[in-house]
Structures are given as C-alpha cells and as structure tokens.
C-alpha cells in the first residue's frame, strides 16, 4: 500500500501519523485495527478459478482461521498463487464463513509494492545445475557421502530416487533433508509427503529442519493433488524472489496415482489403467525444477516406486524415467542383506556432473567409479564403497586413499 493510502487509512483510525516512517505507520495501523476487533492473518494464498482467493493458515490446507481475498485485492497487488500473505482481517459475521482481508502488510516478507515488479517464473532462464549441494556432513554421514560420490546433487537438480519396496527410500530422503539443512541453511527446504502413513509424517517432522507438508493416505485424492499444486506454486514464488528452494517429494508415483483418480477422464487409457491426461500434472510438477541464470534455483528430489507388482506403477515410472537429470537407484537385494544405504553405485548417476565436481577431484571420482564397475557385482561394489567410507574421515581422504591403492595395484601388475 502506498504512503498516501496509508495516511488516509490512519486518518480514519484517528492515528497521529505526522513524522512517522512508512514501516512505523504500517505497525500503528495494524495495532489500531486489532483494537477495533480486527485480527492478524498470515498464510499461503490460494487463488480459485473465479479469481478470488483464500489465505490458507493451516500448513497449505483449509482451516477455520482462513481469510477471504477479494478479486480487486488480487489485481491491485498483483498477487499470485503461493504468495505468503500477512495482513489484517475484518471482524467476521454470521453471513461470512471466511472473513475478508482488510489490509495487506507484506507479501513474501517484503513491501507489498515490490510484488508488482517481480519477474514471472516461466520467463526465467533455466541452465544446468552448477552449484553443489553437498550431502557429506561428518564422518558418520555414510548415506550422504555415498550420494556425493555416485550421484552428486546441485542446486536446480531434477532427481529421481528409484526404489523398490522396503529398500530404505524414506531413510535416504530423511538423510538428504538433514544434509541440506546442515550444509545449506540458506536453502528453503520443503518436504512433501503424499499418500503416506501418519506416523511417517510425524517422524519426518521431528527429524528434519524444514517445512513438512503432508496429505496422508486417509485423505481423498483431490486433497493430494491440491496440496502438491500449492506447494510447487509456493516454491516458484520463492524462486522469483531469487531464493534457492529444495522440494523433496515422497513419492511422484503416488502423486500420479492421485491425479489418475482425481483428474477428469480423457478417454485415452494406457496399460495398467493409467489415463494419459493424468500424467501431465505430475510431469509439470517435476518439470518445474531448474537452476535460474543470475537468480535462484528450484531443486526437486522425488522418489519413484518400482517392482511393486503393479502395472500402473511400472507405466508411471517409464513415463518419468527420462525426465530427470539425476538418478539414485536403490537395490532391494542389498536391503534384504542389511547392507545400508542400499544404493546401486553403478546404476546411479548425474548428468553433466562435471559442472559440479571440481577439476582436481574429477579423475579421482571417475577412477573410483571404474573400480566399482569392474567388480561386476552390485553387492561387492556397495560393500566395498561403504567399508572404505567407514575407514576414512571424509570423501576426499577416501578418494586419495583409493587412488593410491589403485596406483600400487597397477605398479605391482
């Protein structure tokens, strides 16, 4: 709101505004409004097809404390779906289920006037990930250290964690979230759980430092898709502000299943009972991941289920298999033999990883990969990798030690 409008509102509230700075005037108006029966509101904006909106205050979901946003307010401030809105709400009455927003004091934590000048996500230029998100944080972070070596992750990565049932995918995702929070506290971390068990949601909330948004299996498919769309729109708004965002999704398979149930039927049914139109929204979700030139980044790491015995899951995975630029493959046989993390070090990898690995470390990393590939056995390769990681303090020490050992073997030969 511009200064003349603020002063006009201050006059109506009988606030002596002479000599006040703009920020002081906003605070005075808010405090006076609260005394008049108004209340403050803070939440994520959802805009309907009719172009009016609601401020969702209950972690992206509908709640009793939500507020109504009029069409004229959305047009005046240039509001977009996923914006974080702070403001005041008029006192409600029996005819209004959701009381309307009276004033907006900030949009995404900034002056509302700046919202009209921000770029649109679709107009930003995507480039390859070129800044590393390190997973290693200490000697005992074996999962993170293994990921750094076999499938490095960069800001703007579009990654798939391919996992059969009971291979430890949730634990791997948890370690990834913990590593990002420890090594990159500037990154805005969102963990989205779709169709998961409630106890897993609680465990994730207690284990990671970030936003955990969940739609559990006892909720309808419409709720799954609604929450996922609002989360990705929130992530886009943050990227427009120049921030780095990481969205960890568990899982893209269950999200696609939800769209298959909730989306209108197109009449074109693929094998497994998948409606072809149901695959576009989750592809759009995953396709939002990108590194922005001279700006922020949106990293999406999504788990994909395989070997479930479901033809539908197989079709969904085949549709998404070529869309990512990083893939971490988990192996059920390794998990059955209690070898954790159950990562397949040969089948996992990252496209254009030379942009993420420093030139002096590239020969060492690629030398290690050749050694693991030459073992011709996933179990031996992963066991050898984990043993080496546990015997060293850092990945750098491990790579140097492996290179020396390989050089000695070549010399003896």
TrEMBL record:
GO biological process, one term: DNA-templated transcription termination
Molecular-function annotations in GO: ATP binding; ATP-dependent activity, acting on RNA; helicase activity; hydrolase activity; RNA binding
E.C. no: 3.6.4.-
Positions bound to ATP: 154-159, 166-171, 197
EC class (word): hydrolase
Highest rank taxon of the organism: Bacteria
Domain Rho RNA-BD: 38-111
Alphabetically ordered keywords of this record: ATP-binding, Helicase, Hydrolase, Nucleotide-binding, RNA-binding, Transcription, Transcription regulation, Transcription termination
Primary role: Facilitates transcription termination by a mechanism that involves Rho binding to the nascent RNA, activation of Rho's RNA-dependent ATPase activity, and release of the mRNA from the DNA template.
Family statement drawn from the similarity comment of this UniProt entry: Belongs to the Rho family.
Name of the protein in its database record: Transcription termination factor Rho
């Amino acid at each position: 709101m511009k200064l003349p409008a603020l002063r006009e509102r201050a006059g109506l509230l009988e606030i002596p505004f002479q000599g006040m700075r703009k920020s002081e005037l906003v605070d005075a108006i808010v405090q006076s409004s609260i005394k008049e029966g108004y209340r403050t509101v803070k939440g994520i904006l959802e805009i309907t097809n009719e172009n009016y909106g609601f401020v969702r205050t209950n972690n992206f979901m509908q709640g009793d404390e939500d507020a109504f946003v009029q069409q004229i307010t959305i047009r005046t401030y240039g509001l977009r779906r996923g914006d974080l809105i702070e403001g005041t709400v008029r006192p409600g009455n029996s005819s209004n289920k959701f009381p309307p927003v009276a004033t907006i004091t900030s949009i995404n934590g900034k002056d509302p006037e700046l919202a009209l000048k921000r770029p649109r996500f679709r107009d930003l230029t995507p480039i390859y990930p070129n800044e590393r998100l390190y997973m290693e944080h200490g000697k005992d972070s074996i999962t993170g250290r293994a990921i750094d070596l076999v499938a490095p992750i960069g800001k703007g990565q579009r990654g798939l964690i391919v996992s059969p049932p009971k291979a430890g995918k949730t634990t791997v995702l948890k370690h990834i979230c913990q590593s990002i929070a420890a090594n990159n506290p500037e990154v805005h971390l969102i963990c989205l759980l779709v169709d998961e068990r409630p106890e897993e949601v609680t465990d994730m909330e207690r284990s990671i430092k970030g936003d955990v948004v969940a739609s559990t299996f006892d909720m309808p498919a419409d709720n799954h898709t609604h929450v996922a769309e609002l989360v990705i729109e929130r992530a886009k708004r943050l990227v427009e502000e120049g921030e780095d965002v990481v969205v960890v999704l568990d899982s893209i398979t269950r999200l696609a299943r939800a769209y298959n149930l909730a989306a209108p039927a197109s009449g074109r049914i693929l094998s497994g009972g998948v409606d072809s139109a149901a695959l576009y929204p989750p592809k759009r979700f995953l396709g939002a991941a990108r590194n922005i030139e001279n700006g922020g980044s949106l990293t999406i790491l999504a788990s994909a289920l395989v070997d479930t015995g479901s033809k539908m899951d197989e079709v969904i995975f085949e549709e998404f298999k070529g869309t990512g630029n990083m893939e971490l493959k988990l192996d059920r046989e390794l998990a059955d033999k209690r070898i954790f993390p159950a990562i397949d070090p040969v089948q996992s990898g990252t496209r254009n990883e030379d942009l993420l690995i420093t030139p002096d470390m590239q020969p060492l990393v690629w030398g290690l990969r050749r050694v693991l590939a030459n073992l011709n056995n996933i179990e031996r390769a992963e066991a050898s990798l984990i043993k080496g990681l546990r015997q060293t303090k850092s990945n750098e020490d491990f790579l140097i030690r492996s290179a020396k050992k390989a050089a000695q073997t070549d010399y003896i030969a």
